[in-house]
Amino acid sequence: MQYGSFRIRTTNRYLPAWLILLALVTGLLFLFPCRIHAHSTEQQDKASLQQVQAGVLDEHLGAKIPLDLILRDESGKPVRLGELVTVPTIILPVYYSCTNVCVYLQAKMAIALQNLGRRPVEEYRVISFSIDEFETPAMAARSKRMYLSQMKEPFPEEGWRFLTGDAAAIKKLTDSLGFQFQRQGRDFLHPVASIVVSPDGTIVRYLYGTTILPKDLALALVEAKTGIAGVSVRKLMEYCFTYDPTAKTYVFNLLRISASVVIMVAGSFLAFLFLRGRKHIQRKSREP
Amino acid sequence: MSLPDNSRTDISSFWNDTGKTGIAAWIFSTDHKRIGLLYFYSVLGFFLTAVGLGLLLRIELMAPGRTIMGPQTYNALFTVHGVIMIFLFIIPGFPGAFGNLIMPLQIGARDVAFPRLNLFSWWLYMIGAAIILTALFTGSGPPDTGWTFYVPFSSRTGTNVSLAVFGVFIVGFSSILTGVNFVTTIHRLRAEGMTWRRLPLFVWSLYATAWVQILATPILGITLVLVIAERALGTGLFDPGRGGDPLMFQHLFWIYSHPAVYIMILPAMGVISEIIPVFSRKPVFGYKMIAFSSLAIAAAGSLVWGHHMYTSGMSDTAILVFSFLTFVVAIPSAIKVFNWVATLYKGSISLEAPMIFALSFILLFSIGGLTGLILGAAATDIHVHDTQFVVGHFHYTIFGGSGFAFFGAMHYWLPKFYGRKYAEKPALIAWGLMFVGFNITYFSMMVLGMKGMPRRYYDYLPEFAPLNLASTIGSWLLAAGLLLLMVNLFRGLFRGEPFTGNPWGGATLEWSTTTPPPTENFEEEPVVTHGPYDFKGTGIP
User: pTM for the full model?
Assistant: First the structure.
């Protein structure tokens, strides 16, 4: 088609190309509809099933743990829980003489912490505590040496505390967590979970099983930090990932993201059109 | 008259002004008028195909039990009838055909903002259509899910659903690109003096429609990809056995497909808003409200998808909210109807073919709209949900509404592009046959639905037989009228009386240029100094 004097501005000539590219990118986004990770795998399901059979975890999301509770640290000195829960904290209810899942849980936690990319002590802390009132600070200290020495990079002693306590204190803490367990001979029937609490002691998230993904952990810690001014990347992460209680994991919120992308693209398109206004066309002259 | 005098006939029309020859002059042309005609003949072809399928469906339902086909064929036919009518005819029909033909002319532009993208849209549409048609004849048989592709059936049926769904996905992209193109064109390429308040109402309706196309169609895309993923990869997204949710499909599907009915009806309302003032020889009543109501329908219509799902298992609160919002949409729709009627009041009405179609649009659309409220109210919907009542209601709005507006637009605008006109009397007879046939066909369906006959059923109880027979006979009248309309119209366009100047007396810009229009639409850029329905200002008697 002859345009004659119809001059297209350079900026506009590429606009269709950009729009097609945009459409394709949006389309590609839609081609990945599945959850970013599908790690709600059999392993985890099996682990959850075991927990249900072994002990019951009655989620107390939003409830507070007793921060004035006194437990014993690795050296046997009394320590108030509130002194340790000053940053988002991961609590691991275990017993140190356990030869089974507690070992897996803590070993996997040690691996996950190395890949977490967050500074222990300053940004988060881990607390293992024994549900067995007969266990001693010495046993706790031995466990601590074992897991910390297993880590490739040095991990601050303050970053992962191993506590013990008397029966009343243990009951108070486990009750507040909804963590029910039962002694069976030398062992315990108990759920396997990591519980993330915020600095004010609010229970934010239960992460189940011994498969711990650094991403899940990081997101739970981000959630635990809510209320404290977080950096924008964290906020974005919170926006993009939501917790799926059925799969018990964080999932990429595809619908929310794609809806936002569509609305943002359409909004900026409209803004562009209104800002540019009507195009001024060079007038054709009437031929004689 | 302040418009330039473009009514000379010595400049070449778009028909012969092209560097290319043969079919390449059409399928590679970036002229919006040629693309509009490409779209027009494509959608018309698909429309007539689907009409044929609809007639076969009616013949099958003429009497209880097997008449001419088996149940599986019946399932496939009603699916294909729906898919073609919705995705290949009525959604692309108005924007693609008449939007392309008329909109740039009405705003005084030489073409759309992105002519190549426009051609690409048509190509995407044809590729999508080809894929859909391939799905009918390959694999293990045509899809049998209904045009809604509801899971779990669509994820399990052995028929060729994936390919058909992929075709619809491609057509969706065509729709988005047309929307982007039109929005840009309307913002950027309006002629000097063509302010937003002087925009013809057809352009306003296309503008609202284009935003629905841009915002809603991506959701259809994602939904259809999910169905394909479900079938091919077994993702379990819609399978409750694996943590999925079948209701999510319905939400996603209707988030697009309900606004899609506004893609179908809004431009039709725009056509009616053009025809009525011209044939009443009176400025349109309530211009601002009609323009506003187009936007209001597009906005509110995007929030009512849940009214398709009252019986699917939503919370009562959700049902209440969706029901309320559905009633809200009735307000801008009624604003339009009242404004059209007010335009007719004391007008100098001339009952020519476009006007007759426009008037019957008002009646049929009103019946369709009011029966829509029966479906929009949760309590009454439970009674008629998934019955023939829904089929009747839908055809009243989309066939009696959009379809009749499409025929009106054909009679109103096509002579402008061909320079020849159809014969008036056969057009009126055709309209009469169609109007009577239409009401017999679809009113019977609504009564049948009230009595409890479900939709999409191959067989029915003997007490439904008389009305089904009536409906089938009505469909023959309708088809006869349609045949006469087509023969008369196209005979006229190719061999009829010459049609020059501005015989209807329209005040919008397309009537100020030569007939047929030149390639760049106007010999000289128009400067607009009056509103689109200001007949006196334009100097039209």
Answer: 0.75
